């Protein structure tokens, strides 16, 4: 009988210690499970991020830069062609001075509206193409900024071309006020171009998986 008690007591202690270990291990599994759940959630989030990033082309920035420069030069070329092809109208406008006839004023106003319409179309189409090939909307905005800056710089530089249609005689003096006005209009032109272009980019990417994921 004592022998059986002596055999039972160590076994009971071992069983109690094992139960305590299981309970302690059960308690320790709670934060471990929570940690694994948080890790799984992070992994899923990172998985979505990596998936959406894989939808972007590798050379999106280059596409935007090339599109902006090419579209800007095209815009400048079209506006120069419009001005040169209507050189006679601008000569009449200069000859009539501050009191142009209604016909001349209407024609010049129509040409200005045509140039503005061409600019808007180029901004929008370029933004749409950037959205199709580069996807990211900020790149569409960048392309529009380039077009607006190039177009305004060209319109500013042609004033110094001798006998260019529509140019009036200037003193050629440059001061800080002139530079400030020029930079202000340059920034405005670039900003307007970027905003119009990003609308085209949005139209091209509104259903793209990169933005709908």
Helices and strands, with pairings:
Layout: H1 2-53, H2 60-85, H3 87-96, H4 102-134, H5 137-157, H6 176-205, H7 209-212
Written account of the structure:
The protein is an all-alpha fold. It has two domains: 1-54; 59-212, no CATH class. It is 83% helix and 0% strand. The protein is built from seven helices and no strands. The protein has helices at 2-53, 60-85, 87-96, 102-134, 137-157, 176-205, 209-212.
Index terms:
single chain, mainly alpha, 213 residues, 2 domains
Quaternary: single chain
Secondary-structure-based class equals mainly alpha
Specify the number of helices. 7
Total tally of structural domains: 2
What percent of the residues sit in helical stretches (DSSP H or I)?
Answer: over 70%
Mean pLDDT: 78
Report the sheet with the most strands, covering strand number, pairing sense and barrel closure. none
C-alpha-based Rg, rounded:
35 Å
Give the CA-based shape.
elongated
Distance between the termini: 74 Å
Portion in beta strands: under 5%
In short:
This protein has seven helices and no strands. The protein has 213 residues and is mostly helical.
């Amino acid at each position: 009988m004592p022998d059986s008690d002596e055999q039972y007591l160590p076994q009971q202690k071992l069983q109690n210690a094992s139960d305590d270990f299981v309970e302690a291990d059960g308690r320790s599994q709670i934060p471990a499970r929570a940690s694994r759940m948080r890790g799984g959630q992070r992994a899923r989030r990172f998985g979505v991020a990596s998936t959406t990033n894989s939808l972007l082309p590798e050379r999106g920035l280059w596409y935007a830069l090339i599109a902006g420069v090419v579209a800007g030069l095209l815009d400048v070329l079209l506006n120069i062609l419009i001005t040169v092809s209507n050189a006679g109208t601008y000569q009449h406008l200069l000859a009539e001075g501050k009191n142009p006839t209604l016909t001349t004023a209407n024609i010049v106003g129509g040409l200005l509206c045509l140039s503005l319409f061409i600019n808007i179309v180029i901004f929008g189409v370029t933004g749409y193409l950037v959205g199709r090939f580069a996807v990211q909307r900020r790149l569409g905005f960048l392309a529009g900024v380039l077009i607006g800056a190039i177009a305004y710089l060209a319109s500013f530089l042609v004033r110094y071309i001798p006998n260019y249609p529509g140019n009036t005689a200037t003193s050629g003096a440059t001061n800080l006020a002139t530079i400030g006005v020029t930079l202000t209009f340059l920034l405005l032109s670039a900003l307007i171009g970027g905003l119009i272009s990003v609308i085209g980019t949005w139209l091209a990417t509104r259903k793209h998986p990169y933005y709908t994921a």
